[in-house]
Amino acid sequence: MTSDTVVPVLLSTVYARFANEPTQARRDAFLAHASATAFAAVMSGDGDARAMMNGLRRATGERRVLVWSAEHREQADLALTPVAGLLSEATGPPTIGVFLNDGTGAKLGYYLHNTVALGAGRCRPDGRRELAVTITLHYTAPSAGLPGYVRGSVCPAGRMRCRPTCWSSHQPAAGWSVRVETGSLSASCVVTTMASRWDRRPSCSTPALGPS
């Protein structure tokens, strides 16, 4: 296992290789050994420290590395950093979150890729602006050959069930279920925000999108 193969090995290959019930203990042992080896390598101090920090920075930005502490003082310090993973609810530019939940309860998430686009919509009479969130899902799983443990029992081969959820700091989350087949599918939702909270102008006729 190398830096080029670690992702497919840990997220896909290992589940196909140890797919049967009697081999699950061997799979767990393999994953535990791989994690321990990687952690030991990082903690040893060997290797390129700058490359590791850049990797951690990217992983934090993608919300793949999150840290929480049961110690209140430590958690208070962590809450001020991106590694806490908190979504801002403060008055200001809205925070938009898009979350994908694999409805098959299996291991198909490895084959699901997505892009998200955010655009300003119309301004409502009550002062709220609509924000259009477009999610494009690209599903690359093979139509045959995946073991049942990876494919699950909810959908036939070549399909998966996914539940996208849009969250805005200015309104409750909204989610819906979609069925994805091999290929691409676009879905969209509209969230609203009080323009007067974050647009310096009294009207919301001019787009003033904040970070997403």
List keywords for this structure.
212 residues, alpha+beta, four-stranded antiparallel beta sheet, three-stranded antiparallel beta sheet, 7 strands, 29% strand, flat, disordered C terminus
Task: Please describe what this structure looks like.
There is one protein chain. This protein has a domain at 88-212. By secondary structure, it is of the alpha+beta class. It is flat. The strands form 2 sheets. Strands 1, 4, 5 and 6 form a 4-stranded antiparallel sheet that branches. The chain is built from 6 helices and 7 strands. The protein is 28% helix and 29% strand. Residues 194-212 have low confidence and may be disordered. The chain has helices spanning 6-17, 24-43, 49-61, 72-78, 148-151, 195-198, and strands at 96-102, 112-123, 128-139, 159-168, 171-175, 178-181, 183-194. Helix 1 (6-17) packs antiparallel against helix 2 (24-43). A hairpin with a 2-residue loop joins strand 4 and strand 5.
